[in-house]
Amino acid sequence: MRGLRRRELWAGLAFVSPWVVGLGVFLIYPIVASLYYSFCDYSVLERARPIGLANYIDLAKDSVFWKSLFNTLFYAALAVPLGLGLALALALLLNSGVRGLTVYRTIFFLPALMPMVALAVLWLWIFNGEYGVLNVALARLGIHAPAWLTDPAWSKPALVLLSMWGVGQAMVIFLAGLQDVPEHLYEAADLDGASWWDKIRHVTLPMISPVILFNGIMGIIGSLQFFAIPYIMTPNGQPARSAYFYAMYLYDNAFLYLRMGYASAMAWILFILIFCLTLVSLRLAARYVHYEAAP
Amino acid sequence: MLNRALRIVGLVLLAALMYVGFTRQPGPAAEDGKIHISYWEKWTGFEGEAMRAVVEEFNRRQDRIHVDMLTISQVDNKLLLSTAGGVPPDVVGLWNSNLSSFADKKVLLPLDDYLERAGISREDYIPAYYDLCEYEGVMYALPSAPASHGLHWNKRLFRETGLDPERPPRTMEELDAYSERLTKRDESGHLILMGFLPTEPGWWNWAWGCYFGGRLWNGEDTITIDSPANVRGYEWVESYAERYGVTSLQLFQSGFGNFSSPQNAFLSGKVAMVLQGVWMSNFIDKYAPGMEWGAAPFPYPADSPELAEVASVEADVLCIPVGARHREEAFEFIRFVNSQEGMELLCMGQGKHTPLAEVSEEFLAEHPNPYIEVFIDVAKRSRTFSNPKTPLWSEYLSEMNAAFDEIWLGEASAEEALGRVRARVQQKLDRHLEQKALREERP
Q1: Are B73 and B79 in contact (CB under 8 A)?
Q2: Is residue B350 part of a domain?
Q3: Within-domain flag for A153
Q4: What are the CA-CA distances from residue B212 to residues A82, B219, B347 (Å)?
Q5: How far is B255 from chain A, CA to nearest CA, in Å?
Q6: What pTM, to 2 d.p., does this model score?
Q7: Looking at the structure, do residues B225 and B365 belong to the same domain, yes or no?
Q8: Residue B395 and residue A257: Cβ atoms within 8 Å?
Q9: How many CB atoms lie within 10 A of CB B49?
Q10: B7-56 pLDDT per residue, tens
Q11: A238 vs B105, B394, B405: nearest CB
Q12: How far apart are CA A146 and CA B92, in angstroms?
């Protein structure tokens, strides 16, 4: 028996080895290495030279670092709640027994499948100050809209607006959560004379609160790593670095300025930031999130 | 039995992976008995085709070396990664602005010995272009196609405004006055034509101070971007934003299409005068074939006639990475490109002038750009400039672009914005020099 067990163990390890090796080589090693390099002067081309905390101290004094961090938090603070709200609202509407649900669900989800680069180029035109469809439509309504991407005051809000494009992803998850809410709870609420809003407030939201938490955390992580779209739409964070995000500065340091050590330090700070925000969310969750089969 | 077989298969696979992953790939099979060298080039389109023609000519001329030209996007990034991975190409086509950073990181092979043996010297070139290939006294490249910049003007718009279409502005004051006359608005006050715009095409936002006699640094250890001449240059930029209003300029500019399209601001007649390189003629021929245009040296401030000698130049350059396997053969190819014949073939195809001192009569006579000699003369001026030769250039450039935006948008005065750039870049430069001294102490 023992011999068989051991042989099974080997076979099992052999079967998972592609994954284990991949995880080790492409994930764990780079993560550990980046932690080491964050304490080094490292240009990729030369040998890394340990410099202690210098990268972190420099970051604390780097005004562009703070600006990119501010821009990113500003973006996340708008994009995450708005995205959650819109996704939830769409999911609630679709869940109200509308006919052709699958068709609508597909339509609302489709934009989320669009490749980032195509999306960025498309929205460059939508936001165009003179010919953009958005401003033409707003002008019809008598609204004098700004030149979105060339006005420092409007570049971040424009990108928040754009992020609503991908709301279908969260919406589909919300919809699945909504369809899991037991019908009998609504019936009971109906018997108690609950209004439409009462049912949402006291039945739906508590029942899907784990889904809200999940979407919220994914939203925070995604928006703090916001990169591809501004990299194409607002290169160098123009105008005047108003749309220069954390991941862009990290990338520029790593691959443009050849400061891999500095970039690694930035990556670890971002990791710690995301980790803390997730912890805070989970703490709040303990108070507000309702799990059906709570332990 | 089964698991033993599995283990063997697994080991074989792993060994195969390691072999592929950790051994250097031999170059393309040398079945033809030639030495194959790999050449990474950034250009696509007609510029790429022109270079390919030179490569084919080289391959046809002799039967010892075969150049495999590969078009590579983001060639600077990929050179970095391939060097770090130990598999760089034999020849790489970069921009002169990359050189100092790569040379400083010891990625590029010093070419001084090769040049001496081949008998190539500064005298063979327009000096400005030869000097672009040098970093701290060492040559790391030879030019391929170069480019000088000049003022391009739209003769039809000049005529319609009552300006002499054959006389471009010579001083900054004339440029401003012409611009004022050329600029037009529609009934509702929207700009429909600008005489000149310092933001168009926006590729040299760092350079405006240089036209007023400024320099970006002293060449060694001091950043001089907030010098009076530079401040004057950016106050001049600011004056355009103030005179025409940022909001209406933004609206006007958002109607411009891509550079390489008929909606290009200059080609579509929305901007009457523009600072552009010798290549502009190609795009005029392609997208605005009937356009009447001229090219001349860029204006200088009237109170400083000595600045009439200022001109900006840049060049594509060919380098050999330190890790290249076929250095001699790589240099052989670079040398062919830098022969008068190879260079004229290349530059005729790319619509540029040659960096060489000697130019054939046919080249000048047959060149598609009617103003080619203007650009050659501009490149021969005594006060040419290009981006500063410091490894910090990409950071400096990013600071300059941000500062330019602030000045243009009226968020900061020229003095404030440039002062901030100086402080930031000076700090980085100090740090860089400190670390460099450390490295040299203990190699």
Answers
A1: no
A2: yes
A3: yes
A4: 49, 18, 30
A5: 6
A6: 0.89
A7: no
A8: yes
A9: 12
A10: 666 666 666 666 555 555 545 556 788 999 999 999 999 999 999 999 99
A11: B405
A12: 44
Cα separation, A35 vs A227, whole angstroms: 22
- State mean pLDDT over A76-87: 95
User: Mean pLDDT over residues B270-294, rounded?
Assistant: 95
Closest by Cβ to A257, choosing from B81, B254, B394: B394
Which pLDDT band, with edges at 50, 70 and 90, does A293 fall under?
A: low
Per DSSP bridges, beta strands B293-296 and B138-139 are: unpaired
User: b/e string for A62-92 if b means 16 or more Cβ within 10 A?
Assistant: bebbebbbebbeebbebbbebbbeebbebbb
Contact A96, A204 (CB under 8 A): no
Contact flag A10-B83 (C-beta cutoff 8 Å): no
Residues 6+ apart with CB under 8 A from B65: B34, B35, B36, B37, B58, B59, B326, B329, B332, B333
pLDDT in tens, B73-93: 999 989 988 998 899 999 999
- Other CB atoms within a 10 A radius of the CB of residue A266 amount to 26
DSSP character for A197? H
CATH code: domain of residue A85: 1.10.3720.10
Domain that holds residue B53: 33-148+313-385
Are B249 and B222 found together in one domain?
Answer: yes
Q: Which of B3, B252, B409 sits opposite A239 (nearest CB)?
A: B409
In chain B, how many domains are there?
2
Round to whole Å and give the CA distance between B287 and A43: 42
Please indicate whether, in this complex, the C-beta atoms of A255 and B77 are within 8 angstroms of each other. yes
